[in-house]
Design goal:
By secondary structure, the protein is of the alpha/beta class. The protein folds into two domains: 102 residues, Enolase-like, domain 1, CATH 3.30.390.10; 260 residues, TIM Barrel (Alpha-Beta Barrel). 36% of the residues lie in helices and 19% in strands. The chain has an eight-stranded parallel β-barrel with strand order 4-5-7-8-9-10-11-12. A three-stranded antiparallel β-sheet has the order 1-2-3. α1 packs across α3 and α3 crosses α10. The radius of gyration is 21 Å and the shape is globular. The mean pLDDT is 97. The structure holds 2-keto-3-deoxygluconate and magnesium ion.
């Protein structure tokens, strides 16, 4: 009988192109599992939570007892939920699922019930400093085989639209040693969006699925107006229209528009979306493995959502490490109510530090057949890229009022 007791757990903070927090859990029989605990702009809080408060509790535990360990860390902390706690629990949970699947010598999706589909449909990001730039970017992604594309463009008269890079660099918003300040105008945005979608549909037709992220910047009635004004362009979804602490805000949006709604990349618990789902105010839940308590808790959210016809659309920006992407693809493959998976490819250097079995082809991804979740970390290489403080921007209205970024 293999000795699955945890003998060591290491927290690895590294910055290969951007910061990542990784947990490596080792067992007495010489296996290891890997989990992601990256919380963009607050990475060291998770690293400290893990090092100081979680790792000591892991030593000696049976790594096979995943659910029990999840409950131990969640209930046992007394202080439940919150992004730091839940990212830390996720790092442990994913490392334990990885270990269990490696011990069984099967790809993780087999332990999650096996494949529900052959591959996972993903969406890409297209963006532009102008409508012409955006059109070029959409065309490039169609050429790469993507069938679903998120479109974000600079808004005329607005200094900083969400989702558009500064200069010619690839879009990566956490780029300031201190938070960069951006300026925003909702009226200009609402005026521009139907015009933008009109150009995109005229150019590419209706076959490609189009998505758009409002990034928490609207009030419920503004969001309702946006959804209504875009109905004729038949979007796949509109994302994060309003800050969702007020779940009931979605009631009003829903009353006014049939444009499908997605929300939840910042959620860390089923309680963040309980009403959104049960009241059927949304169509896609975007909670991610890393931020919503790992595979164990995300499965609970997805099962609950399935009861109400809500599908998943997991967050997959570059601040979720390749470890999260690997775990997400196993999860996506195994659940009945999968909708779509976000795919924002990592930098080449990130991929070198995190060798992985997953792959992209023709608008879909597969997790690969390696035992576990199929993502590793090259510790020696990771050590060459120490943590570098990097904050997300903050957003102000034109009169200087602090707004949601
Ligand atoms: O850390 C913040 C990013 O992950 C977020 O801004 C990306 O909204 C995002 C998305 O939909 O990918
Ligand atoms: Mg988003």
């Amino acid at each position: 009988m293999a000795d699955a007791r945890i003998v060591e757990a290491k927290v690895i903070v590294t910055c290969p192109a951007r910061n990542f927090v990784t947990l490596k859990v080792m067992t007495a029989d010489g296996l290891y599992g890997i989990g992601d605990g990256t919380l963009n702009g607050r990475e060291l809080a998770v690293a400290a939570y893990l090092r100081d408060h979680v790792v000591p509790c892991l030593i000696g535990r049976d790594s096979e007892r995943i659910e029990d360990t999840w409950q131990y860390l969640y209930r046992g902390a007394y202080w439940r939920r919150g992004p730091v706690t839940m990212a830390s629990i996720s790092a442990v949970d994913v490392a334990l699922w990885d270990l269990k699947a490696k011990r069984a010598q099967v790809p993780l999706y087999q332990l999650l019930g096996g494949r529900c589909r052959e591959s996972v449909r993903v969406y890409a990001h297209a963006n532009g400093h102008s409508v012409e730039d955006l059109i070029e970017s959409v065309a490039k992604h169609i050429e790469l085989g993507y069938k679903a594309i998120r479109v974000q463009a600079a808004v005329p008269g607005v200094a900083d639209a969400y989702g558009v890079p500064h200069g010619t660099k690839t879009y990566e918003p956490a780029d300031g040693d201190l938070p960069r300040e951006e300026t925003w105008s909702t009226p200009k945005y609402l005026h521009f969006m139907p015009k933008l979608m009109d150009v995109v549909r005229a150019k590419f037709g209706f076959e490609v699925a189009l998505l758009h992220d409002s990034h928490h910047r609207l009030t419920p009635i503004e969001a309702a107006a946006l959804g209504k004004s875009l109905e004729e362009y038949q979007l796949f979804w509109l994302e994060d229209l309003t800050p969702a602490e007020n779940q009931d805000g979605f009631r009003m949006i829903r009353q006014h528009t049939t444009t499908p709604l997605a929300v939840g990349e910042v959620f860390n618990s089923v309680f963040d979306c309980q009403r959104l789902i049960a009241e059927q105010w949304i169509d896609y839940i975007r909670a991610a493995v890393t931020h919503a308590g790992g595979i164990t808790h995300l499965r609970r959210i997805a099962s609950f959502a399935d009861l109400y016809g809500v599908r998943t659309g997991c967050h997959g920006a570059t601040d979720l490490s390749p470890v999260c992407m690997g775990a997400a693809l196993h999860f996506d493959l195994s659940i009945p109510n999968f909708g779509i998976q976000e795919h924002m490819p990592h930098a080449a250097l990130t991929n070198e530090v995190f060798p992985h079995a997953y792959s992209y082809s023709g608008g879909t991804m597969v997790p690969g057949e390696a035992p576990g979740h199929g993502v590793d970390i090259d510790e020696a290489l990771a050590a060459k890229f120490p943590y570098k403080r990097a904050y997300l921007p903050v957003c102000r209205l034109e009169d200087g009022t602090l707004h949601s970024w």
